[in-house]
Amino acid sequence: MSTRTQHLQQETRTFQTEVKQLLDILVHSLYTQREIFLRELISNASDALHRMQFELLTNSEVLTPEAELAIHIHTDQEAGILSISDSGVGMTHDELIENLGTIAHSGAAQFLKHLQDQQDDKEPIDQIGQFGVGFYSVFMVAEEVRVTSRSFRPDESAWNWISSGEERYVLTPAEKADRGTRIDIQLKKDALEFADPWRIRQIIREYSDFVPFPIYINDDSEPVNRRQALWRQPSAQITDEEAEAFYRQLTLDKDPPLARIHVHTDAPVQIHALMFIPAQLDRSLLGLKQDFGLRLYSHQIRIQERNKDLLPAYLRFIEGVVDSDDIPLNVSREMVQNHRIIHKIKSVLTRKVLQTLTDMAENEPENYARFWKEFGLFIKEGVTTDPQDLEKLTPLLRFHSTKGDDEWISLSQYVDRAPDDQKKIYYIMGESRTAMERSPHLEYFRQHDIEVLFFEHPIDALLPQAIGDYQKFVFQNVDRIDVTPSSEQKQASAPQEDGLNSLIERVKQVLGDKVADVRPSHILISHPARLAAPEDMLDTGLERIRRLMEEDFSAPTMVLELNPNHPIVQNLIRRLERQQEDGIIDATIEQLYEDALLMEGFHPDPAQMVERIQKLLEAATRI
Questions:
Q1: Distance between CA atoms of 6 and 11, rounded to whole angstroms?
Q2: What is the pLDDT of residues 424-464, one digit of tens each?
Q3: CA–CA gap between residue 147 and residue 184 (Å, rounded)
Q4: Alpha carbon of 93 to those of 31, 65, 170: distances in Å?
Q5: Residue 48: enclosing H or E segment and its boundaries?
Q6: In what order do the strands lie in the sheet with 11-14?
Q7: What are the residues whose beta carbons fall under 8 Å from the beta carbon of 143, sequence distance 6 or more?
Q8: Across the chain, what does the average pLDDT equal?
Q9: pLDDT reported for residue 136
């Protein structure tokens, strides 16, 4: 049964709750750039035209098949009316309700939170299109909106959708002979500038110049927008201004990109691509964000808005457009991802992006440092998940080290400045760089002027295993280092050897199975103790990952090393010699162990140390 026979009269319906909240904010809140409503409506029209263009490839049974795929804008300054129409797929009665009366697919809940956050921060609100609620932005300028739409399906009739942006909207049968959608906007008194054709032209040039369908204003015979498929032009012919304007329209990012990447190939597959590296990371890419991927075109016809298979997941921060005439136009959107051509395109694009990053790292170190600060985590992800790209990705890695402040260094730089007799890449892991710089593990390395890399993120724990060795250097966590005591150290420790052995036995007794072993340290200088990794532990970095993933995390069993020359250790030896049952001894031993746990970032509950610390302070301050 067609919509025409199902619905014969006017209907009044209530907006979904979140739509009402959204409309209230948009209508009554200040918005810094109200003109973006036009960008959003043109974007929606373009999408409807894309869908129609795709439909026409396989379907001849459509309404008014001869209609030009175009957008028409009409202004009536006297009446204060702005109209936008397209010859796209149009909407049925039920689709009008689904698309304009509810927000099941629009993400408005996230947008409402974003609006609130930006209002609290007093930042401009200019990202409405990123949340899929663009249509509702029309109510920032509209007293009333009338949407008249007819589906491309011949047996469907036309309908009006009418709303003033309040709680309800009205549906009525309409007269419309051709397919597509027309939006008539009765402008508010303070928004009459949007009935000025000059102002409309200005907005289109700023926001919608590269929409691939012609946009006509009033009776003009020439489109106002340029429409070039910029990605198909030779890179030398594209100015920075054109590229940045295209990037802004593509991403809604107010900042220019850090770099752009052009690809024009005929073999092994025909590709025209224009990709961008953003200047800043969209933090949601680190979470569950799904709307990433490149725009995919064939013969300049958009096939997919977001294709996630054109680049490996670790390059999901890349924005851009890919066009290939080798992708058949009759392939369904669902089948695109499995098409053999996609795999070839992915190989070419990945190689090009990695080459661009390599060139940036070698020739533009300051720019690459900016890139690394924002996107370094993705490169590390690639190293650990994509072994086929390992050889190209490893030189892109950057680290802070004990021999630099904020300088990022590569593994190649580390190896080049290592002493001739050093064959290991030493690294340290911790909760933060500040904590690592205070780590007892570094005392020996500072004393001997040996550089150590800071592994500052949990994923860094996976790098040594993924890389293996680098230029015949093997990775070595400094918490495994133990050195043979020198003759001077042996001589200095001989007089207190018995007392130290007694203390070690007492520590083992107090800590029990919390530690794998207790032994004297030959590398500590100013710290009383440290926790070293036992031989049978793969890597303490993996324990850090386990701590993030497990709610009931328990500290790993490690080796406690004591510094025989530290005053605390020497005081414990003397106390033990004088009074075996001194309670301060056991409390101090437990505190030394938990201090070491805290330094390693492994303490499951630091707050529980407070009572013991207060007991020790009481003893220390007793007269």
A1: 12
A2: 999 999 888 999 999 999 999 999 999 999 999 989 999 99
A3: 6
A4: 32, 21, 11
A5: helix 36-58
A6: 11-14, 168-173, 159-163, 142-150, 180-187, 81-86, 71-76, 215-217
A7: 164, 186, 187, 188
A8: 87
A9: 86
Contact 397, 379 (CB under 8 A): yes
For 3-217, the fitting CATH number among 3.40.50.740, 3.30.1780.10, 3.30.565.10, 3.30.390.10 is: 3.30.565.10
State the residue for tokens 């500590």.
524
Q: What is the pTM of this model?
A: 0.78
Q: Is 289 helix (H, G, I), strand (E, B) or coil?
A: coil
**Can you tell me the distance from the alpha carbon of 363 to that of 235, in angstroms, rounded to the nearest whole number?**
20
Q: Give the closest residue to 369 by CA, choosing from 349, 392, 389, 397.
A: 397
Q: How confident is the model at residue 22 (pLDDT cuts 50, 70, 90)?
A: confident
Architecture of domain 230-354: 2-Layer Sandwich (3.30)
For CATH 3.30.230.80, the residue range(s) in the chain are: 230-354
Class of domain 487-621: mainly alpha
Identify the residue with better confidence: 396 or 617: 396
| pLDDT over 70 at 329, yes or no | no
pLDDT tens, position by position, 522-533 = 889 999 999 998
257 CB burial (10 A radius; 0-12, 13-18, 19+)? buried
CATH classification number, 399-480, choose in 3.40.50.300, 3.40.50.11260, 3.30.110.10, 1.10.357.10: 3.40.50.11260
CB 169 within 8 A of CB 101: yes
CB 269 within 8 A of CB 324: yes
- Per the model's pLDDT, the better-predicted residue between 589 and 6 turns out to be 589
What pLDDT was estimated at residue 522?
87
